[in-house]
Amino acid sequence: MLKDPVKTKNEIVEWIREYFEENGKGCKAVIGISGGKDSSVAAALCAEALGKDRVVGVMMPNGIQSDISDSVKLVEFLGIPHVELNIGGAFQAMKAMLEGSEDLLAICGTDKITKDTEINLPPRLRMSTLYAVGQMLPGGARVVNTCNASEDYVGYSTKYGDAAGDFSPMSHLLVHEVQQIGDILGLPYELVHKTPSDGLSGQDDEQKLGFTYAALDKYVLTGVCEDEATKAKIDRLHRLNLHKLRLMPAFEPSQESRAQ
Known about the structure:
The chain is of the alpha/beta class and 260 residues long. The chain has helices at 5-23, 37-50, 68-78, 88-99, 102-108, 115-136, 149-153, 175-184, 189-192, 205-209, 213-222, 228-240; strands at 28-32, 55-59, 82-84, 141-143.
């Protein structure tokens, strides 16, 4: 729990301003708008830091999105420029390409993409879309990463999908702290406290993870988890997904191996 969420909110806003002064003076922030707490809070922080005209919201349904109205509500509430780009065609084309390859069938032993591939492909297409939009904007743009510390800890993000971006204003905030900031910003309650889901698995995030965000936040913050099965599950996910948090390993030749 943040002791002073107003102070933290102001510090994040100043941090965003400083980032753009050093890494993209005058350019815009581009952000994917899902209608959930993370994109809502991140967009609001950027709008306060840069002004609403310098934040471009991109809604990216995959075909039909049942809660697209939440995304519309957010961009209209903030008054930011926005566009809806449906990735459904790109997703279906990618799926057809992968499932139509006889070579892949021979290598993978199946002519169907896996459930995990089906879940992770849309976030990667969305991130490609955000960078495309950013490069089309006059003066360029920087892409907002909307991850939070709770989900990062257990790897609940897609590598090179929603885990990507140019700057991350909330990656050191736990889920309940993001919600504190959202409330301070005056965002609609139903967006900040919306039950999160990936929209594909048929489960909300907590059902898919197998534990609550409250239990996860407490463990990350204090190291305490009363339920041993939950603790073991969190530890396992953290261990398996550390590669998402670290820079890509790169071999570096020793000085002795190079000619002088």
